[in-house]
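Re: the pair you flagged

First of the two:
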Amino acid sequence: MLTLLRHFRTSFILFLIGTGCLLAFNLSTPHVAANGSLNEPFAFIPLAWLFLGLSAVTFVANMVRTMLGIKRQHLDC
């Protein structure tokens, strides 16, 4: 289990950051300023998509690299 976590550590950290951005957006309360404009932390939404996308890309890349390593180990035997 630890070796699996070691291979996918980067994608797991990026996933946690993306989930944290979504959580921060949902927990923040938007408010209307004195001039009538709406103030809300909208930047958390694109950041969450960015980190979740990077997490998916690194997960797939690490999965392919791990699978190729497993196939090479079986071919060497």
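Second of the two:
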Amino acid sequence: MALRVITVGVHDMDAAITFYTKLLGFDVRDASMAPHFVELESEGPTLLLAQCEQPAVSTYPAGATIALDVDTDDAAAALERFRAAGADLVHDTLQDSPVGPYFGVRDPSGNVIEMVQFD
């Protein structure tokens, strides 16, 4: 088995593209199927934004969810950048974990992203 594609449902494709490119730093690889699908550049599995009708409703971190963990060299600087952009922060401060400091943020559709400074 191999994980090849991660599909992220988004209810506002334009806002999602802005979030994933401007705040997270991904580039658009293929927008030929927009607004239904937009593929982002990723060193790992293909990251695919897929148009859906409604935003996600997540109770993260209390409830079960799938979170996208994105590597960052400086979690503190990333947190300040997201804060300055008015992003929907799950954590106001860095959180400790066995793999390194992190914080959670929601994309414009409510999907959870964890920005992790892996040790």
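The first strand starts at residue 5 and ends at 10.

-B.
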